[in-house]
Write a structure and sequence with these properties.
This protein is of the alpha/beta class. It has an eight-stranded mixed sheet, sandwiched between helices. It has a single domain, classed as Spore Coat Polysaccharide Biosynthesis Protein SpsA, Chain A (Alpha-Beta Complex), CATH 3.90.550. The protein is elongated and about 95 Å long. The longest helix is centred in the C-terminal third of the chain and has 34 residues. The protein is built from eleven helices and eight strands. Helix 1 links the parallel strand 1 and strand 2.
């Protein structure tokens, strides 16, 4: 494939004023180098997506855009979460770019991996996934939970790239196909493999966060993992069905046992056994209802068909 295509780098931002200027500096150096070497077009840009930030993130984006034509931005009407903000950026960028790279604003993703991604793109890949080469810098808890998450997702039947977050390259063709996926409950790293097309991976070392705090504390990470499982797998419901069948068979056996004991004239008080059985079955029933209810709730969200995001400002249209 001939080089010189228009590249847009989409960067979701939520309260990133502490790191945004440094991110801008590093991305500018990278884009200038790629443009000078004719790897990408001079019309390429970095698109910041303001996800309803409460600090001065949007004001900084406007200022950066005014001072440098390599940068632009869009602002959502309110905070919609990382996945929706990323989706808004991707769907907007596909109207202007030939190829789009998504990455976080905290500079943990290695910017130099962009060169390798573009090389694979020009070799014919429509999707290139940025994959962490190791987790040496993670705490034991973070490393264990992350690895468990990917293994559990695989076990649930979800097609997911191991150790890949949202640092990826996608061609315009992939994004055009991706726009046909209309679900409200977003788990982007699970949807892109469904699109298909030729893909490859690029390994990189993830850095420490340059400044600020993580926007994904444990509670959000758990919610994100649960969304990924329930959006792409029905195995939890099938596990509930299997458990129900097992308990039903067990109850039949217990009924037969109780009848035999009664006919033999053996009377046992059995209070402890009875109480434990009631509590166990009640707990299983509540757990089953909770899992099924989660799926019903997601169906409820989907059928309403509310917009996943609303763009209040698009600096590309204001110039």
């Amino acid at each position: 494939m001939k080089k010189g295509n228009v590249l847009y780098i989409v960067v979701p931002c939520y309260n990133e004023e502490e790191v945004l200027l440094e991110t801008t500096k590093r991305l500018k150096e990278k884009l200038d180098d790629l443009i000078d070497n004719k790897v990408i077009s001079k019309n390429s840009k970095v698109m910041y997506v303001n996800d309803g930030s409460k600090d001065k993130t949007w004001e900084l984006i406007e200022e950066i855009s005014q001072n440098d034509k390599l940068f632009t931005g869009i602002s959502l009407s309110r905070n919609r979460g990382h996945q929706n903000a990323l989706l808004a950026g991707l769907m907007t960028a596909k109207n202007y770019a030939d190829v789009v790279i998504s990455m976080d604003a905290d500079l943990q993703d290695d910017i130099n991996a962009i060169d390798m991604m573009l090389n694979k793109y020009y070799d014919g890949c429509d999707t290139v996934y940025g994959v962490r080469s190791s987790r040496k810098k993670d705490t034991w808890f973070k490393k264990t939970t992350a690895l468990s998450f990917y293994k559990f997702m695989k076990m649930m039947g979800v097609d997911i790239i191991y150790n890949h977050a949202d640092y990826r390259l996608t061609s315009k063709r992939v994004l055009e196909s991706f726009s046909d996926y209309k679900e409200i409950n977003l788990f982007l790293r699970g949807i892109f493999p469904l699109v298909g097309c030729k893909s490859d991976v690029v390994y990189y070392e993830r850095h420490e966060r340059f400044a600020g705090v993580s926007k994904y504390p444990l509670k959000k990470m758990l919610n994100f993992a649960w969304d990924g499982i329930t959006s792409f797998s029905v195995k939890p419901i099938r596990l509930v069905l299997g458990l129900g069948i097992l308990l039903f068979v067990t109850s039949i056996i217990m009924i037969i046992y109780c009848v035999i004991v009664k006919l033999l004239g053996q009377t046992v008080t059995g209070w402890t056994f009875l109480a434990c059985s009631i509590w166990m079955l009640s707990g299983v029933q509540m757990l089953s209802l909770g899992i099924i209810g989660e799926y019903v709730g997601k169906v409820y969200s989907e059928v309403k068909g509310r917009p996943r995001y609303i763009i209040s400002r698009n600096l590309l249209e204001e110039k």
